[in-house]
Structures are given as structure tokens and as C-alpha cells.
Amino acid sequence: MADVGTRDPDEFSADQWPDWSFWKDQPDDPGARRRGRLTVAAAMAPASLALLARAEGLTHGTRPPWLTTLVITLVACYGVGCALAAWCGPTALRRGRIVLVAVLFLLGAAPAVLLAAPSQLTDLTYALSIGLMLLPLRRALLLGLVTVVGQIVWMRLARGEVAWAQVGILVGVTAALGTVFALNFTIGHLRAARAQVRRLAVHEERERVARDMHDVLGHSLSTMTVKLGLARRVLESSGDVPFAVREITELETMARTALSDVRATVSDYRTLSLDSELAGARMALRAAGVRAELPAATDDVRAELREVFGYVVREAVTNVLRHSDAELCTVRTGPDWVEITDNGTPTGGVRAGNGLTGLAERLAAVSGTLDHGPAPGGGFRVTARGPAPVGRLTPRQEAGPS
Fold first, then answer.
1. Cβ 325 vs Cβ 347: under 8 Å
2. What is the DSSP letter of 71?
3. Transmembrane residues, as ranges (predicted)?
4. Are strands 291-293 and 328-334 parallel, antiparallel or unpaired?
5. Burial level of 360, CB count in 10 A (0-12/13-18/19+)?
6. Do 116 and 158 contact (CB within 8 A), yes or no?
7. Residue 10 half-sphere exposure, CB side, CA atoms within 13 Å?
């Protein structure tokens, strides 16, 4: 049973730190970082203009010059800090993000404290937007709630009334900028996911071609090597030219078939039949001097499993030819299983190679399994099983391979 307390890492959580790693330039999308940062810069441009207007308005009044200069300096630093935080904050570590947001809040709140003007806290909307961008959603919302409540309470205590327009601007602008950042965040992740899907598709196609090429050429070249050796020995020993010509003619046919299979594999149009693989196995084993016991018919094998079982027969017989000194190879089939055994001694051990690994992947794609290892009476055995058929099984189906 799955642990209900375990959270999927891809599942959204209000306590999750925003991951802006997609801003790093991707090999197949070099403009990803530039587009994202330009979007953020465009969103922060109105903030800079508003802060400039705020600084210009502070020059008019009866305040001491030093206080006006200090406040204007703080506002200017606040505007520059918001721009830099939006540009560099997403790539910072967690502690760096917290420091950036804290510094922005100090710079944004300092003019309000120095001027004793709670309406100046409306400028904190930009710091809150940066908080929504860099901090976990739960913390950013809590920070925004504290800011809004603090402004309302301060206005009530200082003036006896609340300037709801200022509070509305604080909430509205923060929500607007936060929405822009959230959209940019979502679009960036979608683009990164799309790029990853493309890379995985290319990788999967390479694996498919490599697996199919191994299956096609491994079996064909092994059989052709055996037949070439047989023709050479016949010509060297007995000089039976007609027999050698017959073997070479079969080699020519096999070479043409292998070439067609390679072309079809690259184009993903190749299909494989269990009956044809059994016929090919009979010919290859006969040429190698291995006695073959093969099923006379495969009508009882389920149609949806015949192709993958054909791959199993091909790979197992190829391994008998290449890695075994067997004198007998037996193939048995059932509705949802196929078993290949031989009485030889594997010359390369029983470790799974690329062929058996590829078979396991093919069977996994149809919810099947692959077992291989030493046979009880000696030799080697490969057993492939498909998913159990729906419905009541006959005694023979329930028995399966021994």
C-alpha cells in the first residue's frame, strides 16, 4: 500500500520553494533565460516609474533637507533593489532569497517610519511581489497579510480612519505583479517540460533502433556465420559443390531479408511473426548441427503476444548458436508463455546481455516478464510470460512452463 504521507515531488505545495531553474539556458532553447527575465523586467518597469514619481513628490514640503535627502535615497535604493532582486533572486539560494526580501522590506518601510506616514507602506507592494516570486506561497501570503493588517491598524491609530484606496492599491498591485510572476513561472516550467519530452523522445527512439538492430543483425549474422562455416567445411572436406551452392543461396536470401529488416527497423515499419521466427530458428539450428524440437503450430498463442514471443525465440536461439555448445534446443509455447531450453553449457556465463535486457523491456511493455537461467536438468532456459488472460483458464494454461 502506498504511503499516504509521502508527497509527490511534482505535486504543488504551499510550503514549496519556487524552482526557477528553468531560467538556465537550455541547449535546445538558448533564449529561455532572456525571455523570462525580460518579462519580469517589463512587469517591474511600472514600479520604477511609480517610485520615481514618489521620490519627486517628496521634494515638496517643509521637511528638513537632510530628512528629504535620506528618504529619497532610501526610495531610490528600494527601486534599484526591487529590479535587482527580480533579476537575480530566482537563481539565489534560500538564505539569499530571505535576505533579499528582508532588505527590500526594510528599504520600503523605512520612508513610512521616518515620515510617520502609514500611506507610504503602499510602496511595499513591490517587496511583497518579490516575496511571492522568491518565497514559498504560504510564507509570502502570511507576509502580505501582516503588511496589510499593519497598514490598516497604523492608519486607524494615527488618523482615526483608514484610507482604503491606499490599502486597495497595496493589495491590487501586489496581486497583479504576483500573477505576472506566476504566469511566467508556469510558462517557463511548461517550456522546460516540453524540451525534456523532446529529449526523452529522441532517447527512446535511439534505444528502439539500437534494440531492433541488435535483434535483427544479431540473429541474422549469427546464422549467416554458421552457414558460411558449414559451406567452407563442405568444400574443404568433401567438395560437395551442390550442397555448398545451396547453403550459399540461402545465405544470399538471408542477407536480402536482413537488409529489408534493417530498412524497415529504421522506418519503424518492421513486423515480426512467431511462425516465421520458428521457421528461421529451425533452419539456423539445422545448419549449426543442433537438433531442434519446435512446436508444429502456434495457434494456441494469443495474437497480441505472438510478435514479442517471436523476439524471444529469435534472441534465445541466437544465444544458443553464439554462446552454447548445445546439441538439442527445445521450444515450447502456450497461450501466454514461451520457453526455450538447450542442453549445452553457456560459454559466456548466464549474465544478461543487451539482448536479454532488450527482451525484458519488450515484455514489460506488454505487462509480461522474462526469466532466464540454468535449466534444472542442465543447460540453459529462457521463459517469457505475458499477462494472464481474462477468464477461466484451462488446466494446460494454468500449468504453464515447468
1. yes
2. H
3. 67-86, 98-117, 137-155, 167-187
4. parallel
5. middle
6. yes
7. 3
All three cell numbers of 341, joined, read 531450453
Measure the CA angle with vertex 262, ends 258 and 264; round to 5°. Answer: 115
Alpha helices for 59-93 (secondary structure H)? 65-88
Q: What are phi and psi of 388, to 5 degrees?
A: -60, 135
* CATH numbers and ranges of domains, the chain: 21-199 (no CATH), 274-402 (3.30.565.10)
Residue 119 DSSP code: G
Cβ-in-10-Å burial (0-12, 13-18, 19+) of 76 comes to: middle
Task: Say which amino acid occupies 176.
Answer: A
Q: Give the 3-state secondary structure percentages of the chain, helix then strand then coil, rounded to 5.
A: 70, 10, 25
User: How many CB atoms within 10 Å of residue 44?
Assistant: 22
Three cell numbers written together for 254: 538471408
Cβ neighbours of 211 (radius 10 Å): 19
DSSP state of 393: P
Of 121, 113, 114, 107, which Cα lies nearest the Cα of 151?
121
- Per the DSSP assignment, residues forming a β-bridge with 291 are 328
Residues forming a β-bridge with 385 = 337, 369
pTM for the whole structure: 0.50
Beta carbons within 8 Å of 95's beta carbon, 6+ residues apart = none
Grid coordinates in use for 224? 549467416
- Tell me the C-alpha to C-alpha distance, in Å, between residue 283 and each of 102, 247, 274, 318: 79, 11, 14, 12
Question: 110 to each of 51, 78, 120, how far by Cα in Å?
Answer: 14, 10, 9
DSSP-assigned letter for residue 199: H
Q: Whole-angstrom Cα distance, residue 63 to residue 114?
A: 11
Return per-residue pLDDT of the chain as tens, 402 residues. 334 344 444 555 677 788 777 766 555 555 555 666 666 666 666 666 667 666 666 666 667 888 888 888 888 888 888 878 877 777 788 898 899 999 988 988 888 888 888 888 888 888 888 888 888 888 888 888 888 898 889 888 887 888 888 888 888 878 877 787 777 777 777 777 777 777 777 777 677 667 767 666 676 777 778 778 878 888 888 778 888 888 788 878 777 777 777 776 666 555 677 888 888 888 888 877 888 899 888 888 888 888 889 889 988 888 888 877 888 999 999 889 999 999 887 655 545 566 788 788 888 888 899 998 888 878 889 999 988 765 545 444 545 665
